Amino acid sequence: MQLRYAFRMYPDLLQRAALARAFGCARVVFNDAVRAREDARTAGAVFPRAGELSKRLITEAKQTAARSWLDEVSAVVLQQALRDAETAYRNFFASLKGSRKGPKLGAPRFKSRKDNRQSIRFTANARWSIADSGRLNLPKVGAVKVNWSRTLPSTPTSVTVIRDAAGRYFASFVIDTAPAADAARMSESDQRIGIDLGLTHFAILSDGRKIDSPRFLRRAEKKLRKTQRELSRKQKGSKNRNKARLKVARAHAQVADARREFHHQLSTRLIRENQAIGVEDLAVKGLARTRLAKSVHDAGWSQFVAMLEYKAQRYGRTLVKIGRFVPTSRTCSICDHVDGPKPLNVREWTCPACGALLDRDVNSACNVKKAAGLAVTACGAQVRPEPVLAQRDEAGSHGFPPEPRAA
Fold first, then answer.
1. Angstrom distances, CA of residue 158 to CA of 78, 80, 127, 128, 216
2. 216 vs 57: CA distance, rounded Å
3. Which of 99, 107, 172, 254 lies at a CB distance of 3.0 to 4.6 Å from 160, suitable for a disulfide?
4. Region for 332 from its dihedrals, namely left if φ exceeds 0, alpha if ψ lies in -120 to 50, beta otherwise
5. Sequence-ordered list of residues with C-beta below 8 angstroms from that of 400, at least 6 positions apart, any chain
6. At what angle do helices 239-273 and 301-314 cross, to 10 degrees?
7. Is residue 10 within 8 Å of 169, Cβ to Cβ?
8. Residue 170: beta bridge partners?
9. Which residues are annotated as catalytic?
10. How far is residue 314's CA from residue 273's CA, in Å, rounded to a whole number?
């Protein structure tokens, strides 16, 4: 499988200027490709092909006075900008036909030079290299200093240079990993576990362990309010406003980086300790429309589950997602009795069938494990509850029967 390894870059002033020129040229070529497609659509003509656009927007444009500065950057960067525009249109048409999974995509839009995030991509044809000194040699940019926080497992196929909203530069490498080598890195384990994600505790495991939620956004709210207040008082278009915007972006970047690091450490530990993991497929978009929206976004459940998914695939583990409509918090994990709905302030409840005192979160994690088919009986057989047909007198909702009167 293909993975990305990102490393922080520290270009000097001249290299930053060269990267800015590359960002601008790639943006102009992308916008020219979108404009050519839109002009063809308005005129009712056939969309120009990628080869025709490459000849017109790059090769011939370099010979004109209006686009002669395109020759100052690597041609591979411009070709990749055209490829990005082609991919954007392909995804848009696939979304219209319904052949692409996920939400509906709109038509590609023009990129603005005021966008806080810029990126360019160098493939193997660009002849970029990593020097023995550890610097990254980029064509028409130079040898850029890179902070190598870890070693690359194999030779990368391409590198993407990214400048984020906080003004930081990153080199993102695409790596082809070997499945056999990755699986050998993880020791064998026979443990199976279910995970219930929450807000008070970020993750509750079926073995009773509870992992507290760091609440990075809540802890940084005071600093974020101060920086945002300073930004609102600056005059638009001034240099001081740009400095204040960078402070806000860096404050948000610190929160996002801390959350991502927490998700990486926890997901790696769970993948290392367990052979199979069960997790609930939560409707995060729906929960983000409630009064718990800020806490839901602060937890970052979707990012955590995505990390579990790709790491399980990489290291030969099993990740099972159960449906979001499985009543994990209403079902007794001991006798499988389904009780009524319970408000969020009820953290413990007693099963009316077997009388067991159940912790709401741990009970949900056990039910997630059972619904995923990861629970094992004493004889070694996996347990997956089968659907049971309702009896004639159980169909519909008739409320609770009346209590018997005293004689």
1. 15, 11, 10, 9, 33
2. 46
3. 172
4. beta
5. none
6. 50
7. yes
8. 8, 162
9. 196, 280, 361
10. 15
Token couple for 371: 């619904």
C-alpha distance from residue 164 to each of 30, 77, 252 (Å):
19, 18, 11
Amino acid in the structure at residue 17: A
Radius of gyration of the chain from its Cα atoms, rounded to whole angstroms: 27
pLDDT tens series, the chain, 407 aa = 889 999 999 999 999 999 999 999 999 999 999 999 999 999 988 888 889 999 999 999 999 999 999 999 999 999 999 999 999 999 999 999 989 888 889 999 999 998 989 999 999 989 999 999 999 999 999 999 999 999 898 889 999 999 999 999 999 999 988 878 887 888 888 899 999 999 989 999 999 999 999 999 999 999 999 999 999 999 998 999 999 999 999 999 999 999 999 999 999 999 999 999 999 988 888 888 889 899 999 999 999 999 999 999 999 899 999 988 888 888 898 898 888 888 888 888 888 888 888 888 999 999 999 988 876 543 344 555 444 344 333 344 444 344 444 43
Question: The tokens of 397 are what?
Answer: 């909702």
Beta partners for residue 278, in sequence order: 194, 320
What does the H/E/C string look like for the chain?
CEEEEEEEEECCHHHHHHHHHHHHHHHHHHHHHHHHHHHHHHHCCCCCCHHHHHHHHHHCHHHCCCCHHHHHCCHHHHHHHHHHHHHHHHHHHHHHHCCCCCCCCCCCCCCCCCCCCEEEEEEHHHCCEECCCCCEEECCCEEEEEECCCCCCCCCCEEEEEECCCCCEEEEEEEECCHHHHHHHCCCCCCEEEEEECCCEEEEECCCCEEECCCHHHHCHHHHHHHHHHHHCCCCCCHHHHHHHHHHHHHHHHHHHHHHHHHHHHHHHHHHHCCEEEEECCCHHHHCCCCCHHHHHHHCHHHHHHHHHHHHHHCCCEEEEECCCCCCCCECCCCCCECCCCCCCCCEEECCCCCCEEEHHHHHHHHHHHHCCCEECCCCCEECCCCCCCCHHHCCCCCCCCCCCCC
Torsion of CA 17, 19, 24, 29, to 10 degrees: 140
- Cβ neighbours around 79 below 10 Å, total: 19
Tokens of 46: 């056939």
Q: How far apart (Å, rounded) are the C-alpha atoms in residues 157 and 3?
A: 11
